[in-house]
Amino acid sequence: TSIVVLLVAALFAYQSESISDLFTFFLAFLGGVGPVYVMRWLWWRVRAQTEIVAMCTSAASTILITYVLGPIWDLGPLSDGGALRPEGRLVVVVLCSLAASLVHLAIARPPAAQRLVPFYERVRPIGFWGPVRRLASGSTEQALSWWPPLLGIVGGLALIFGLLFGVGRLILEGGGGAAAPFGIAVLGATVVGWSLRQARPIAEK
CA–CA separation, 163 vs 160, rounded Å? Predict the structure, then answer.
C-alpha cells in the first residue's frame, strides 16, 4: 500500500505545476469527508460505512473533476471560463460526498441502537440520538444543550488559528502584529475551558 501511495503521489506531483495546486487538490480530495465526520457525532444513524462512502466519493469526484472533465462548469464566482476554481471544486466535491452519504444512509440498515448505548452514556453527544437516548440509563436531558459544545468548537478554532498566525508572525515578521492572533488564541482557550467545564458534570455521571 505504501508503494502504491508513493507512486500515486509521484504522479500527482508530476501533473501539478506548483505546490499550491497540490495543496488545493488534496484539500478537495479529503474535504468531502468533513461533513460526514461532523454528522457522526450528531446523528446516531451515521456509521463507519458512511464515512468510507464519503471518502471514496470525495477521492473519485476530485480526480474526475481535475483530470477528466473539461471546462463544462458555469457556477458564477466558483468557475472561470468553464473551469472550476479551487474553492468551486471543493464545494462540488463536498456536495457529491454529502449526497452519496445521504443515499447510503437511506438504503443501509441502521446500526443497532443498543450497541451505541455505552458510547452515548460516556460522551452524551448532542444532536439526533433519540433511539439511543431512550435506551441509556440515568438522566440524559442535560446532554441536549447545544450551546456549550458549539461555543467550544468556535473557541477551538480561534485557539488553533490564533496560534497558527501568531507563531507565523513571530517567525516570518519578527513578532510584528503577533499580539492580536495570540490574544485571539487566549480567548479561544478560555472558551474551550468553559465548554469543557460545562461538559464535565455530564461525563462524570
Answer: 5
**Lookup: cell for 4:** 502504491
DSSP state of 85: P
Instruction: Please state, in angstroms and rounded to a whole number, the distance separating the CA atoms of residues 157 and 22.
Output: 24
- Whole-angstrom distance, CA of residue 77 vs CA of residue 79: 6
| Residue from 152, 24, 40, 142 nearest 91 by CA | 24
Q: Which is nearest to 184 in space by CA: 167, 162, 169?
A: 162
Rounded CA gap, 194 and 1, in Å?
A: 43
For the chain, how big is the Rg over CA atoms in Å?
21
pLDDT in tens, 97-114: 999 999 999 999 999 999
Number of C-beta neighbours around residue 81 at 10 A: 7
- pTM of the entire structure? 0.71
